[in-house]
Amino acid sequence: MSEQNTAPRTASPPVVGILGAGRAGTAFARTLLAADVGVDICSTRPPKALQHHLKIYAPGAEPVAPEQIAERTRRNGPGIVILAVPQEELDEVDPAWIGESILIDATNTWTYSGEREPLPGWLEAAVTEQLPSSMAIAGHFSPARTVKALNHIAHSDLDDAAGRDLPMTQRRALAVAADDDQARGLVMGLLVRMGFDPVSLGPLAAGRVMEPDGPLFNRPLRREDLLPYAR
Ligand SMILES: NC(=O)c1ccc[n+]([C@@H]2O[C@H](COP(=O)([O-])OP(=O)(O)OC[C@H]3O[C@@H](n4cnc5c(N)ncnc54)[C@H](OP(=O)(O)O)[C@@H]3O)[C@@H](O)[C@H]2O)c1
């Protein structure tokens, strides 16, 4: 047997896919890459056209075509894709790209000068009824398993707030809501690796408090601040 064949095999690092390479998507990418998690990322631009942008905002992230966003994540990890595309563009995101992967819904419904961003019809109906937007997103992107997370921290806070070297008690706490226990657990593990203290609020419906008009939005919180909102 050759030396090459007897050498111990090192496992490839896990890979996470990110849909959207804007402010949020590239900030998630930087935090993941700093935690030794590989990143595949896409936008409306072809991979080649994204290269320069990524060199500046998320060096090390791999530009891919949207339909390839989940491929490597399933080979090298639990198959997690982060949705970081504005909600008004969600009709342009094909659920087939995500398939049965875990989908971290990091999106928010934005209101500009009193006017809500124009939403796809399936999302507009839910938001008008004051349902959490992630519930409509979970239905639209089924069979993906949706986990609401990472939407309530600003892109400009992510790099500094990630405390990979800190004990859990000193880390910034981030809320997680999901109907699927296994998916929620895997996403919480990812957030720990990124340097946060994840707190489960329970089902997706409990994630309403994570939205822009809710009490958790863009606040530097600790575990004890989040626990009262857990169901
Ligand atoms: N900004 C934050 O601090 C923050 C934090 C947490 C969560 N969020 C949420 O994340 C979402 C994105 O916010 P953002 O601030 O990152 O927006 P942004 O800076 O405008 O970036 C949006 C990105 O989505 C891409 N995109 C649009 N349509 C797409 C499609 N069909 N397929 C693939 N990519 C597509 C855009 O591609 P192109 O570059 O090719 O146009 C762009 O890269 C929003 O819902 C926001 O509420 C934002």
UniProtKB/TrEMBL annotation:
InterPro entries: NAD(P)-bd_dom_sf (IPR036291), P5C_Rdtase_cat_N (IPR028939), STEAP_metalloreductase (IPR051267). Keywords: Oxidoreductase. It comes from the Bacteria. Residues 16-108 form the Pyrroline-5-carboxylate reductase catalytic N-terminal domain. SUPFAM superfamilies: NAD(P)-binding Rossmann-fold domains. Gene3D superfamilies: NAD(P)-binding Rossmann-like Domain (3.40.50.720). It holds the Pfam family F420_oxidored. PANTHER family: DUDULIN-RELATED, F420-DEPENDENT NADP REDUCTASE. This is Dinucleotide-binding enzyme. It comes from Nesterenkonia lacusekhoensis.
